[in-house]
Write a structure and sequence with these properties.
about 190 residues, alpha/beta, Spore Coat Polysaccharide Biosynthesis Protein SpsA, Chain A, two-stranded antiparallel ribbon, 7 helices, 10 strands, about 30% helix
C-alpha cells in the first residue's frame, strides 16, 4: 500500500468527443470507472471519486466540483481539499490500463516535490500524477485567475518531478497506462487490443 496518499478518480468531464458519460462506458464487462477503481483501491487506504454532481450509481465517497469552476483542475482542487492525506494520486476514469507498477514507480519519486508527473512522447500526463496537498493554495489561486485553467499553468507554479517514459518502461513496456479513451474510436481500439 502507498503510504500517506489518497486515490482521486476524476469523472466530471463533459465527454464531448465521446458523446456520452465515459465513467459508465463498458469495456470487457466493467465500466471504465470500475476498472480504474479495481486498480487503485488495493494501493491506497482511501479512494475518492470526483464528480460534477452527486451520483447515485457510485458507492465510494464522492467530492463535487465547485459549481463556479469547471474542468479537471476543479476536480483536482475538490479532491485535494477533501483528502486527509499529504498526497493525492489523481487519475482520469478514462485511463483503464494504468498499472499498479506505474503508480508505485511514480509514488517513489515524491520526495522534495509538490507533483510527480509522467511525461510520455514529450507530453506531460497530469491526469495520472501525484499532487501534494500543499499545492492546493496555488491551485485555488490559479482557478481564481481569469483564463488560467490549464494543468500547464498549474505545473509552472509547482515543484514538479517529471518522470520520463524511459523510466516507466520497466513498469509498463507498452506504456498502455497512458492510453486514454476520448472517442468512440479509442474505445473500439481498446476493445480490439485488450
Amino acid at each position: 500500500m502507498i503510504e500517506n496518499c489518497t486515490a482521486l478518480i476524476l469523472t466530471g468531464g463533459d465527454s464531448r468527443r465521446m458523446g456520452r458519460d465515459k465513467a459508465s462506458l463498458v469495456l470487457d464487462g466493467l465500466t471504465l470507472l470500475q476498472r480504474v477503481v479495481n486498480i487503485v483501491q488495493p494501493l491506497f487506504a482511501e479512494t475518492i471519486i470526483s464528480v460534477r454532481q452527486p451520483r447515485q450509481d457510485i458507492a465510494l465517497p464522492q467530492v463535487c466540483d465547485d459549481p463556479a469552476q469547471h474542468g479537471p483542475l476543479a476536480g483536482l482542487a475538490a479532491g485535494l481539499a477533501r483528502a486527509t492525506t499529504p498526497w493525492v494520486f489523481a487519475v482520469a476514469c478514462d485511463m483503464p490500463f494504468i498499472t499498479p507498477a506505474v503508480i508505485e514507480h511514480l509514488a517513489a519519486c515524491r520526495s522534495g516535490s509538490q507533483a510527480v508527473v509522467p511525461v510520455v512522447q514529450g507530453h506531460a500526463q497530469p491526469l495520472a500524477a501525484f499532487y501534494a496537498r500543499d499545492c492546493l493554495q496555488a491551485l485555488q489561486l490559479l482557478l481564481g485567475a481569469s483564463g488560467q485553467h490549464s494543468f500547464r499553468a498549474l505545473l509552472e507554479r509547482l515543484r514538479v518531478c517529471h518522470v520520463d517514459e524511459a523510466q516507466l518502461l520497466a513498469a509498463d513496456p507498452q506504456l498502455r497506462s497512458f492510453f486514454d479513451l476520448d472517442t468512440p474510436e479509442d474505445v473500439a481500439a481498446a476493445q480490439k487490443n485488450n
